[in-house]
């Protein structure tokens, strides 16, 4: 796709920005003030630490997107710097992380829908609603990249509005608020900051989605980098300000026990309708995330299919220019996984699959940082020893360390099963590699 016109590349800056922000803001953010409440003001400090860490990662992706503005994002970076096998592992793991996340987010979406339709608390109606949500968005992704981009932009703006409302209204009511304690947990301040940073870091994961559909983005070598930086700043401002507003409005002990902190805050500010506003915002947030994950799940396998790392069948585009086959497979697998959640005896398997995929969300961060180190090493070997190159090397190392911090916080079980999931994909890589070898041999006969 060499054409750089809006028709050929329907994602401009704002659609790219919406992918960054919309992929990160899901249902989890609506619980964040309650999770941070036991840590008081130090809990808010966690946003500053995680913000620095995720900005290092975002800048790493921004530099790599400028260096290699190719379809597949982390896959292209890993393959370009570390070889075919590394590229395959990233594509395989990243794809699995997307469709498993779709099922988890769909379950959360139905949970918020049940606020308005109590019948959705029953397994069969809940499953039907979740499947309807997944397949409606799958149909949109099958039909039009342009439609996907516009829908993502609209849902991102709409999901930000309830959070902004809390910030503004909370600021106006701050005169009557009481500052939270500095460290109500009584724990070691450094340990508390580290724990808070770990919790908040997870709310920022997902911003890398914008790097995957590079062929759909206008002027990707510049637009992706700008969208990443502006998007992450947007996320940090929204998250910090909204968490602070809720913590000012609701006493810490009450907030720590809340199951719906934003709804509780909105109810205090504007009455019973406040909970409805937040529930609608959460539904929109989850729907936007599903749309983003379906887009990325389709796009991430196209490049390795083109380049022979997986069967070419996966890379075939429909007449609408979308990877229809992979989107259908992703939606089907997400649907089956969601059905497991509502089937007695299979809930544990659903939770296990979600755990299994957690690490595969983070592995691209590690490989992207290491790939940039490789490219910088090559630049130095070619004689470029400028201050810019040395600075970028330092930033890449810091991004690598920030990612290790997130991975360590995910737990030993997550790390173990995440690597097992990557290993399972190795036979597919071997078979695809053999197909390429046999094809090359036949071509030379």
Automatic annotation (TrEMBL):
Keywords: Cell membrane, Membrane, Transmembrane, Transmembrane helix. GO terms for molecular function: transmembrane transporter activity. Gene3D superfamilies: Amino acid/polyamine transporter I (1.20.1740.10). It is a multi-pass membrane protein. Pfam families: AA_permease_2 (PF13520). GO terms for cellular component: plasma membrane. It comes from the Bacteria. It is found in: Cell membrane. Its main location: membrane. The keyword Transmembrane helix applies. The chain crosses the membrane at residues 12-32, 39-62, 126-145, 157-175, 190-212, 224-250, 270-303, 324-342, 348-371, 392-409, 415-432. Major component of the acid-resistance (AR) system allowing enteric pathogens to survive the acidic environment in the stomach. Exchanges extracellular arginine for its intracellular decarboxylation product agmatine (Agm) thereby expelling intracellular protons. Probably undergoes several conformational states in order to translocate the substrate across the membrane; keeps the substrate accessible to only 1 side of the membrane at a time by opening and closing 3 membrane-internal gates. Belongs to the amino acid-polyamine-organocation (APC) superfamily. Basic amino acid/polyamine antiporter (APA) (TC 2.A.3.2) family. This is Arginine/agmatine antiporter. It comes from Gimibacter soli. The lineage of its organism: Bacteria, Pseudomonadati, Pseudomonadota, Alphaproteobacteria, Kordiimonadales.
């Amino acid at each position: 796709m060499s054409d750089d016109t809006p028709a050929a590349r329907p994602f401009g800056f704002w659609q790219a920005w919406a992918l960054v922000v919309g992929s990160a803001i899901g249902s989890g953010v609506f619980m964040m003030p309650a999770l941070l409440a036991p840590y008081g003001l130090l809990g808010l400090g966690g946003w500053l630490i995680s913000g620095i860490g995720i900005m290092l990662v975002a800048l790493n992706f921004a530099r790599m997107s400028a260096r290699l503005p190719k379809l597949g994002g982390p896959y292209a970076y890993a393959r370009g710097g570390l070889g075919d096998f590394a590229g395959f592992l990233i594509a395989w793991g990243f794809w699995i992380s997307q469709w498993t996340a779709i099922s988890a987010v769909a379950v959360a979406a139905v949970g918020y829908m049940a606020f308005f339709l109590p019948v959705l608390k029953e397994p069969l109606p809940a499953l039907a609603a979740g499947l309807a949500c997944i397949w409606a968005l799958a149909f949109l992704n099958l039909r039009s990249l342009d439609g996907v981009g516009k829908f993502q932009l609209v849902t991102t703006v709409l999901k930000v509005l309830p959070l902004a409302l809390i910030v503004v209204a909370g600021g106006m009511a701050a005169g009557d608020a009481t500052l939270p304690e500095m460290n109500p947990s009584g724990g070691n301040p450094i340990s508390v900051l580290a724990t808070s940073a770990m919790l908040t870091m997870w709310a920022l994961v997902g911003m890398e989605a914008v790097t995957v559909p590079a062929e759909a983005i206008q002027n990707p070598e510049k637009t992706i980098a700008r969208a990443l930086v502006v998007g992450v700043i947007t996320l940090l401002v929204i998250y910090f300000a909204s968490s602070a507003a809720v913590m000012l409005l609701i006493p810490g002990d009450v907030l720590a026990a809340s199951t719906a902190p934003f709804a509780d805050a909105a109810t205090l500010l504007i009455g019973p309708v406040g909970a409805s506003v937040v529930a609608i915002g959460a539904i929109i947030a989850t729907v936007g995330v599903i749309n983003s994950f379906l887009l990325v799940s389709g796009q991430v396998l196209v490049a390795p299919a083109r380049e022979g790392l997986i069967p070419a069948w996966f890379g075939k585009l429909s007449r609408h220019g979308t990877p229809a086959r992979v989107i259908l497979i992703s939606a089907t697998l997400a649907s089956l996984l969601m059905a497991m959640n509502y089937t007695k005896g299979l809930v544990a398997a659903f939770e296990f699959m979600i755990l299994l995929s957690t690490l595969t969300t983070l592995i691209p961060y590690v490989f992207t940082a290491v790939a940039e180190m490789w490219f910088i090493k090559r630049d130095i070997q070619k004689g470029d020893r400028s201050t810019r190159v040395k600075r970028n090397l330092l930033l890449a190392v810091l991004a690598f360390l920030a990612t290790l911090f997130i991975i360590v916080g995910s737990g030993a079980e997550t790390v173990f099963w995440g690597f097992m999931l990557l290993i399972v994909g190795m036979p597919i890589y071997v078979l695809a590699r053999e197909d390429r070898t046999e094809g090359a041999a036949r071509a030379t006969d």
